[in-house]
Amino acid sequence: MTLAWEQVLVHSEDPATLGQWWAEALGWVVVHTSADEFEIRPEPDRLPGLDFVRLDESKKAKSRLHLDFRPEDQDAEVARLLAHGAQRVDVGQGDAPWVVLADPEGNEFCVLAAH
After folding, report:
1. Is 29 domain-assigned?
2. What are the VOC domain coordinates in residue numbering (predicted)?
């Protein structure tokens, strides 16, 4: 038996707005939209993707799952994401070599230092 990782679901109050924010942040393409769902992928036929699905309640606590990204230039990428609407977040990371940010709905993600 084998499993293929297809996507990560992200519950969202406004799937289209949040999904579009992530599509622009990652440079990904939109592959599906409906009133309650907005799916993006790196390329139309490339997996895994992110699927934003409506959930009519706001985020209440620290995310139990988050995404990590490793850019070539951490400082430049953090600056770009902050200008795009991300916010710095303190989740108790202390003096770590990564930066914790949150998207417009408060979902945390990390921008790691370059190798």
Report:
1. yes
2. 4-114
